[in-house]
Amino acid sequence: MEQDNLIRFASRMDYLPPYLFGMINKMKMDKRRNGDDVIDLGMGNPMDPTPDAVIEKLVNVAQDPKSHRYPESSGLPNLKKEVAKYYDRHYNIALDADKETYFTIGSKEGISHLCLAIMGPGDCVLVPAPAFPIHIYASVIAGANVMRIPLEPENGFLDRIIKVCEACYPSPKVLMLNYPHNPTGVVTDKAFFQEIVTLAKR
After folding, report:
1. C-alpha span between 118 and 176 (Å, rounded)
2. pLDDT for 45-104, tens place per residue?
3. Residue 146: which H helix or E strand, with range?
4. Any idea where the Aminotransferase class I/classII large domain is (predicted)?
5. What does the alpha-carbon distance between residue 77 and residue 80 come to, in Å, rounded to a whole number?
6. Which sequence spans correspond to the domains of the chain?
7. Is 105-202 a domain of CATH 3.40.640.10?
8. pTM of the entire structure?
């Protein structure tokens, strides 16, 4: 009897939904194969060329021998200080540059690492529906249970969040929010965030 030597995926992979942009790309390809004229309003890839000044700076940095080594794992110290200064200057928020500023390759990597750091099996995370895909994928990979809260055309999203938080046991550990909301583009006001902070402190 032939032994099955295939690597078996972890069970968490069974709970990952299909990748949204992969599905959209397939739909676009199918339409184009059928001769349809497709206007691509998908991923926000830049269409304009990168400014010359940015390219020149990248070239200069790449040619600097100091750039040919691994950087600090938590970020360049001077950059961390500048980020802390920016928050102090623009938002009147005092950050500890060493302990409260971190850098990742991109937002998706940052969200994934954050979920792995604070979530685990049995934790509940609330995610708007629709949502940017990484909010769901990162939560599932971390082992959390994802509960979708519909974003309806009418108001009431905050009320739905409050009702879910009151009804769930154990209480949700994380609420994923991003504004302007991706993918709808909806914005909200300061009062909404104040209510969310009050809810989180209960």
Report:
1. 13
2. 777 899 999 999 999 999 999 889 888 777 889 999 999 999 999 999 999 999 999 888
3. strand 145-150
4. 37-202
5. 5
6. 50-103, 105-202
7. yes
8. 0.76
